[in-house]
Amino acid sequence: MTQNAAIGIFDSGVGGLTVFREVVRILPHEDIVYFGDVGRYPYGGRSKEIITKFARQDIALLQEHDVKFIICACNTASAVALDDIAGDYDIDMIGVINPGAQAAVERTRNGRIGVIGTHATIGSNAYARVIHDIDPALKVFSLACPLFVPLAEEGYIDKEATYLITRDYLQTMHDVEIDTLVLGCTHYPLLKHVIAEVMGEKVTLIDSGEETARVAHKLLSDAHLLSASTSKAQHTFFVSDVPEKFSSIATRFLGRHIEKITRVDISGY
Amino acid sequence: MTQNAAIGIFDSGVGGLTVFREVVRILPHEDIVYFGDVGRYPYGGRSKEIITKFARQDIALLQEHDVKFIICACNTASAVALDDIAGDYDIDMIGVINPGAQAAVERTRNGRIGVIGTHATIGSNAYARVIHDIDPALKVFSLACPLFVPLAEEGYIDKEATYLITRDYLQTMHDVEIDTLVLGCTHYPLLKHVIAEVMGEKVTLIDSGEETARVAHKLLSDAHLLSASTSKAQHTFFVSDVPEKFSSIATRFLGRHIEKITRVDISGY
């Protein structure tokens, strides 16, 4: 494994691009191979056995590209599969749950943390479990906000309806007086300013993707695996079905067009 | 093929239950086998080749249960695959597009028809094509309303935000003065009263599922294949992944709980 190898990122689809974006910002000289499993999206709602199989295939695909480090950008796979399988590989890998949970624990002042995510992530209780492993005295309030994903994907953001839905969902979080809110779904950073406005400035928002990029930086640095390159980094994209939908949503998520997206048949991995 | 065999219905997921509901209403004595391909939902956004393969597998599964007639309740598969493959089978099958389009042509008075659906259905232009095959002089206005599916699935219906989104989407349909609007997605009947209120009483709404059930009744009657049974009909449900999400949305779609849902591995068909 060489320090100039790429970082691999996989996700069930397009949501992981918000993690990709943070990795690019924090580690601008790192090559990145991104795999979006759009052909089998979403992972949430599937059985643990199936999600674990999918994660292993996604990792196998990334390993073909000689990556030095793997980020599981999918909250569902991070919650359900990653801890069980990470030990089977001789490459370091992290998910998005632990970094988000850790950051929330560090930043809360009143010990009351909110977590929002999809039905699958909230149902797994993964964030609350990790937070309580660190400090059992903290109070964690978890809430599924399933309409946030389609609103983000459709770019339906600065609309009155989106503010109404956000207020509707987050009223409980106000009522229970959290001071820290974990955005436990990779799509939610696109609604960050709406969520911030609804929650008010006293509530700290934790972007799991940003925290994950920070942890990746630290782990690569500790392992002396940061890239020595100062040239423009290469970003390579693979998807598991026709790339059109991925491409159009990616433009919205990244604020720029992705030139080349290669389709692969993931079932063979 | 016997007249007391069941009707088979397949869909990419839970949306086809609105078609199922109409078939039950119009053909209460017919046994029904429903397959929801939740493990590979949604079909929209996938390639024609993949959707055709999926439709053939879904049909093969239904045929194992000796069905006498097949309804493809999925707009995407109806639009992209059904016409190409129906001739390969010795069993009659219909999709949801032709009945919806036919009903719109019969009911418009001013010759201006609106069609709403998912990105995939609208992108396929299937409704407009069928309408123009019947009468090239009709004006067809097609519009994707992608947020309607998650709003319906989440039961987020009698909310101000849903009315705002509906008004936002359908303003154009007002402007172009349609008098008939096709609900070209199986989820949309759940938002029917919102759409009706926004469009006003002068606009006739066409529920493709209801029209499909009517056509199924006529075809079965013409073929002397209507069930002779007067006992309580059997409804059997199969899904291609864990049934929990299907089950909870089904309760919302049907207004009653489904007792037994069997999981099958569709990849073997």
Give keywords.
homodimer; about 270 residues; 11 helices; 2 domains; about 15% strand; Rossmann fold; alpha/beta; four-stranded parallel β-sheet; six-stranded parallel β-sheet
The end-to-end distance of chain A, rounded to whole angstroms, is 21 Å
Tally of extended strands of chain A?
A: 10
Summed up, the helix count of chain A is 11
In percent, how much strand structure appears in the residues of chain A?
15-25%
How would you spell out the order of helices and strands of chain A? EHEHEHEHEHHEHHEHEHEHE
| CATH class division of the largest domain in chain A | Alpha Beta
Helix fraction bin of chain A = 40-55%
* Derived structural class of chain A: alpha/beta
Assembly type of the chains comes to homodimer
Q: Which two chains touch over the largest interface?
A: A-B, 27 and 27 residues
Query: For the residues shown, what is the average pLDDT of chain A?
Result: 95
Level-2 CATH architecture of the largest domain in chain A = 3-Layer(aba) Sandwich
Poorly predicted regions of chain A are none
**Annotated CATH topology of the largest domain in chain A:** Rossmann fold
Number of domains of chain A: 2
CA radius of gyration of chain A is: 18 Å
Largest beta-sheet characterization of chain A: 6 strands, parallel
Strand order of the largest sheet of chain A: 4-3-1-2-9-10
- Which shape of chain A, going by the Cα principal axes? globular
